[in-house]
Specification:
Residues 1-12 have a biased composition (Basic residues). The protein has 286 residues and is mainly alpha-helical. The chain is 54% helix and 3% strand. A two-stranded antiparallel sheet has the order 1-2. Strands 3-4 form a two-stranded antiparallel sheet.
Length: 286
């Protein structure tokens, strides 16, 4: 099929005379390319280029996220689409993050001020717990979450467990928040983790009554007064037994160490494990 002449891109293609990358050199294509270049230079002089370098904009967004803003808040503040922000940060459909961005979008994003993130003290673990539980509801296993947040398995366990730690460092909260922003719309595949891990995590989250990201409002997930929709939580002894299983069998803790991590006595934890075994036996024989 012969392509028409007179398009600027044909100045660099199709090939001519068998020379790779030479492009069409006919008078029509050369003249059109010249007009396009003149318009581009004129827009550059006037400061009205339609596209601009995405790197500084991406860096600004990363600072905004580090300061505590969610991607939803950034989208709303800049009045841009979520797709535009997703392509800027992570790319889309197998493509790398955008190297260029709309000038209007760039100006809108750069106009959002960066609030200073606290670097000392502790903050409530509630938002971090809800985010980890929500990702678990999608099937993201503790090992995967630990790898992506840079936190230890034990830290993930202590934060995610309903009766776990009440306070976390700001850096920990923001690491979890950043991973949540990236994975909230993504289901794990076998490239991310074994299918068995996904199924086991998803089933446990369902029994525990943990809600997926879609059930939470990004602006409310950190607020204690926000109550999730009604769910059917798993009995506490089952949750403790599950956490103890991972601490003892996967992280090689002793029963006493696991009990200390879970803020219960070793005797009570042992009873929870025994009740969980009986529960599973009853289900199999039912």
């Amino acid at each position: 099929m012969t392509r028409p002449h007179g398009h600027a891109r044909f100045r660099k293609g199709p090939n001519q005379d068998g020379v790779e990358g030479k492009g069409c050199r006919c008078a029509i294509c050369r003249a059109h390319r010249g007009r396009v270049e003149k318009r581009y230079k004129l827009r550059a002089l006037r400061g009205t280029l339609m596209l601009t370098d995405a790197a500084p904009v991406r860096a600004h967004v990363q600072r905004l996220i580090a300061s505590g803003l969610t991607t939803r808040q950034i989208v709303e503040a800049a009045n841009i689409s979520r797709g535009a922000l997703r392509r800027l940060l992570w790319g889309s459909d197998g493509f790398a993050p955008s190297s260029r961005i709309s000038t209007d979008n760039a100006h809108a994003i750069l106009a959002i001020p960066v609030e200073t993130m606290p670097t000392s003290g502790l903050v409530s673990a509630l938002g971090s717990r809800r985010r980890l539980q929500a990702l678990s509801a999608l099937g993201w296993a503790r090992t995967s979450l630990a790898q992506r947040t840079g936190l230890s398995h034990t830290t993930i366990t202590l934060i995610r467990t309903p009766n776990g730690t009440k306070k976390v460092a700001p850096r920990t909260a923001h690491a979890i928040k950043a991973v949540y922003e990236r994975l909230a719309d993504t289901l794990p595949t076998t490239d991310d983790q074994p299918l068995a891990s996904t199924t086991r995590t998803r089933n446990y989250a369902r029994r525990a009554g943990w809600l997926p990201p879609g059930e939470w409002d990004d602006d409310q997930i950190d607020h204690p007064e926000t109550t999730p929709p009604a769910a059917n939580p798993e009995p506490r002894y089952l949750a403790l037994a599950f956490d103890a299983h991972e601490l003892i069998n996967e992280q090689r803790h002793s029963l006493t160490q696991a009990a200390e991590r879970l803020s219960v006595s070793p005797k009570y934890l042992q009873k929870c494990i025994e009740r969980a075994r009986n529960h599973n036996t009853d289900r199999k024989t039912a």
